[in-house]
Amino acid sequence: GGSTRGELNVLLVGDPGVSKSQLLGYMNKIAPRGIYTSGRGSSAVVDKMSDNARSMLHEVMEQQTVSVAKAGIISTLNARTSVLAAANPVESRYNRGKNIMDNINLPPSLVSRFDLLYLILDDVDEGKDRQLAKHLVSLHFESVPEPPRSRIPARKLRDLVAHARQTCHPSISDEASKAIVDAYVDMRCRGQAMGNKRTTISATPRQLESLVRIAEALARMRLSTSVEARDVEEAVRLMKSAWASAAEPSTGVLDMSLINTGVSEASRQNLKQVEQAVAEVLRKVDSRAGTLQQLGTLVEDQLGFSVPQETIAQGMQALPNVTVRGARWSKTGRAV
Known about the structure:
The chain is α/β, with parallel strands linked by helices. The chain has three domains: 9-123, P-loop containing nucleotide triphosphate hydrolases (Rossmann fold, 3-Layer(aba) Sandwich), CATH 3.40.50; 168-261, Helicase, Ruva Protein, domain 3 (Orthogonal Bundle), CATH 1.10.8; 266-331, Orthogonal Bundle (Arc Repressor Mutant, subunit A), CATH 1.10.10. 46% of the residues lie in helices and 13% in strands. The chain contains 13 helices and ten strands. The strands form four sheets. The chain has a three-stranded parallel sheet. α7 runs parallel beside α9 (229-242), α8 (205-221) packs across α9 (229-242) and α11 crosses α12 (292-303).
């Protein structure tokens, strides 16, 4: 069998000013071998990257290699690295009425390669706002307050990470193996919960591999030689909290089709329903041309709910013998 990557990839998506860059900078300090970059061509701020740089990341994040072509010679180099990236919403602030893929300017093929995706939103919370304000104001004191004793110094934490990576290679116990299988099956079944008639994909083999990687990382944090059931339990909790952002806003159901393809199962089924309604309406109308607005009214009357004009156009484009140009449509054959 082929080898699988053992490094975790994490994506942070959030409003401006929530310290995403600060988190990336601190992680660079505690990583034994880390590189922090930003701007175009960056592996940190992925929404500002060029298309060429993004395509290179696909190979790095999945195969853990990078191919370099020079003077007709292609060399494949090892790139066993973890990627911690940050991205801003396309509308500057996160739009809760849209799904995660509509909020970020990243292709599904790249987003699906992240093991964890966290939303960091700038919500109003008096307690947290006061705590943050006190901390920022304290940085301007002549004598900076001493950090809490419970905080581990960055140098010591970096040494601990390096030691764990070099000396700990935990194996999965029988108990943990069963727990991972059960957790994956449970995640798959959640798509059919609550009387859901659609075949919603709530987990894929990529999520199964992510569970294994996260559980192994948790065991490595404890400097343990074995992955235990408690590591799997915490890995499941982390995954559920991270990928909760992939839930479809209209249904609240976790849909990994949204991450893998950019289109949720609910949207796909809705479009299919619109296509059928458009075809039925076109069979009934006598005219061979008209406006999308007029056709949309007839389609909405048949479906019983409002449909955006762009969805009407998208549904018509899937039909034979129909042409859509701008805000108008026309039949190009005898039948639809």
